[in-house]
């Protein structure tokens, strides 16, 4: 007859659950200690306590969110962004995590990515004032960077960018026209910019179901843009 191990298994489960509960309690205590340091502006000490809490319970999104805030207090933006990302990965419904993630990205001047994060946060809470305020701060910064980037482009490159904007806005006929201007502005119609414009113009023709034009532009691309497999 096999021994009855039901009682032993039950005891093991109970002990495991009890240990887990104790660990979570300790983690919460560390978080609370971190909060007290944070309130006093002692960010290094707060980070240490939040890190202790994470070691004890790495599944709690709040600990990463709080540590992200402490990193922001120290101007350690990459670390703040990393913790913000971890926070929203653990709990995609936690809006504050998106805000802190985006603040970290803003600090390292990753404005486009920051806006993506904020838009993701808006899907959870569209009317969140913190998210909307930060969007209003970052959009002009991104526009300024984009303007500076485009100012350094030559005429054909600038026209290609305009065509891309029109394509994104679904203004395909106008985009076709601008891509043509960009191609004409190129010194050679097999330059990288020209090839890119032919390719993008083919995509516009496809959207308009002008398949003969698609074949024509794609044939030009294939003629000059042959790469080894």
From TrEMBL:
InterPro entries: SGT, TPR-like_helical_dom_sf, TPR_rpt. GO terms for biological process: post-translational protein targeting to endoplasmic reticulum membrane. Keywords: Cytoplasm, Repeat, TPR repeat. GO terms for cellular component: membrane; TRC complex. It is found in: Cytoplasm. One of its GO terms (molecular function) is molecular adaptor activity. Transmembrane segments: none annotated. TPR repeats lie at residues 27-60. Its main location: cytoplasm. SMART domains: TPR (SM00028). PROSITE patterns: TPR, TPR_REGION. Pfam families: TPR_11. Acts as a co-chaperone and mediates the association of the chaperones HSP70 and HSP90 probably facilitating substrate transfer from HSP70 to HSP90. Stimulates HSP70 ATPase activity and, in contrast, inhibits HSP90 ATPase activity. Monomer. Homodimer. Forms a complex composed of HOP and chaperones HSP70 and HSP90; the interaction is stronger in the absence of ATP. Interacts (via TPR 1, 2, 3, 7, 8 and 9 repeats) with HSP70 (via C-terminus); the interaction is direct and is stronger in the absence of ATP. Interacts (via TPR 4, 5 and 6 repeats) with HSP90 (via C-terminus); the interaction is direct. PANTHER family: LD24721P, STI1 DOMAIN-CONTAINING PROTEIN. This is Hsp70-Hsp90 organising protein. It comes from Aphanomyces astaci.
């Amino acid at each position: 007859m096999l021994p009855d191990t039901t009682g032993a298994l039950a005891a093991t489960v109970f002990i495991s659950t009890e240990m887990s509960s104790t660990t979570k309690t300790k983690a919460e205590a560390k978080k609370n200690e971190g909060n007290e340091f944070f309130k006093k502006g002692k960010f290094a000490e707060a980070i240490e306590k939040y890190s202790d809490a994470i070691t004890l319970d790495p599944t709690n999104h709040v600990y990463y969110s709080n540590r992200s805030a402490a990193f922001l207090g120290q101007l350690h933006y990459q670390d703040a962004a990393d913790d913000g990302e971890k926070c929203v990965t653990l709990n995609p419904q936690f809006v504050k995590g998106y805000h802190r993630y985006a603040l970290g990205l803003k600090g390292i001047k990753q404005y486009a990515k920051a806006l993506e994060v904020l838009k993701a946060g808006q899907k959870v809470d569209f009317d969140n004032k913190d998210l909307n305020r930060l969007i209003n701060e970052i959009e002009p910064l991104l526009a300024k960077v984009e303007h500076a980037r485009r100012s350094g482009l030559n005429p054909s490159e600038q026209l290609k960018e305009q065509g891309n904007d029109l394509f994104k806005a679904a203004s395909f006929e106008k985009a076709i026209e601008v891509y043509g201007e960009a191609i004409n502005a190129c010194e050679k119609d097999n330059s990288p910019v020209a090839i890119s414009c032919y390719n993008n113009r083919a995509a516009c023709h496809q959207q308009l179901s002008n398949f003969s034009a698609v074949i024509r532009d794609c044939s030009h691309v294939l003629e000059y843009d042959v790469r080894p497999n």
